[in-house]
Amino acid sequence: MSKISVVIPCYNEYEVIQETNKNVSKVLEDVCKIFQMEYEIIYVNDGSKDNTLQILHFLQDKHNYNEQKLGKINIVSLAKNFGHQAALSAGLHYAKGDAIISIDADLQDPPELIELMIKKWLDGSDVIYGVRTSREGETFFKLLTAKLFYILLRKLTHVDIPIDSGDFRLMSRNALNIFNTLPERNRFIRGMVPWIGLRQEPIYYERSARFAGETKYPFRKMLKLAFDGIISFSNVPLQSAYYFGFIVALLSIIYGFYIVIYSLVKGYPVLGWSSLMVAILFIGAVQLITIGVLGEYIGRIYDEVKKRPLFIVNEKESRLN
Fold first, then answer.
1. Percentage of residues in the chain with pLDDT exceeding 90?
2. Contact of 27 with 103, CB cutoff 8 Å
3. Which end of the chain is less congested by CB atoms within 10 angstroms, N or C?
4. CATH second-level architecture of 3-216?
5. Are 209 and 137 in contact (CB under 8 A)?
6. What percent of the chain has pLDDT over 70?
């Protein structure tokens, strides 16, 4: 009998997690009856500071002792807050299913699409990913910056990363086994999954507003995720240092010729400390930007060389069947 795994990262989700479990469990029960399958739900507690973990333990006990259920709930509790991408990777690492679905705990992505994902998986697709046609409850600024980011990312990389996709997707066991061999620490899973190739297919949906609670991706975290995506999949920022240097050198040569010709024609050198200071500050800014870009790449190399684990599991708080 085939098995479906659903991975749900959680960080301070006590306001929504019971509703999430209710909806996801109902969908999985119905789907598994249709396709004659079993399931597991893997909640990953990413170092929550509220009572999310206690609620998960309660939901697990209530669910797993019901013999009429077609699946079980497992809990992976991390030793601290490692971040959404690491928590999602932890859940994928422990998933045992033949098809593995990742979905956020905020109910913005509809669990009802799981049935369609499974149908497409049974038809032979290895990855079925959700693409948001609209995003309810999000500001114009966030929508604009997200769209610009995906457009920029597609221009800078050779990986075909779908615009307006997220972490709501199904992966086959084959796709997940390949994904789990990828070793990088600074993760951008939305780029890593398209990178592995295989047969990938989109499904389109309207994303709802968060059911309860507040977003766990404020602007600062979104900016870091954007940097991780660009630096992990593109060396264009490094190459841009060469182009900046070439442009500045060319402008300097042109300006030098201008000074010489002006001095010969007028008989005295060009006056103006303001223009000189602007040129110096411009060159200094280009150098600092270049050093900053190099620092980002070197810092990630440093993280990779240390080979620290991507996540650490708190065995006392975790409950795995």
1. 18
2. no
3. N
4. Alpha-Beta Complex (3.90)
5. yes
6. 75
Q: Decide: 188 and 87 in contact? Cβ < 8 Å.
A: no
pLDDT digits (tens, 9 = 90+) for 94-129: 999 899 999 988 888 888 899 999 999 999 899 999
Query: What is the DSSP code string of 235-287?
Result: -HHHHHHHHHHHHHHHHHHHHHHHHHHHHHHHSSPPP-HHHHHHHHHHHHHHH
Alpha-helical runs (H) found in the chain = 17-35, 52-64, 84-94, 114-122, 140-156, 173-179, 189-195, 219-233, 236-266, 273-306
Task: Fill in the amino acid letter for 116.
Answer: L
Going from the C-alpha of 145 to that of each of 136, 148, 226, 296, the distances in angstroms are 15, 5, 10, 21
Chain segment 10-37, per-residue pLDDT in tens: 988 888 888 889 899 889 988 888 888 8
Ordered by start, the domain boundaries in the chain are 3-216, 236-306
Side chain identity at 70, as an amino acid letter?
L
- Least confident piece of the model among 39-43, 84-88, 187-191, 278-282: 278-282
Query: Biggest alpha carbon distance in the chain?
Result: 98
Residue 41 three-state SS: strand
Tokens of 75: 């809990």
Unique residue bearing structure tokens 């990777």: 89
User: Mapping DSSP to helix (H, G, I), strand (E, B) and coil, where does residue 111 land?
Assistant: helix
Q: Find the length of the chain.
A: 321
Whether the per-residue pLDDT at 210 is higher than 60: the answer is no
Distance CA 28, CA 301 (A): 41
Q: How far apart are CA 300 and CA 292, in angstroms?
A: 13
Q: Retrieve residue 314's tokens.
A: 């708190």
Backbone φ and ψ of 33, nearest 5°: -70, -40
Q: Does residue 75 sit in helix, strand or coil?
A: strand
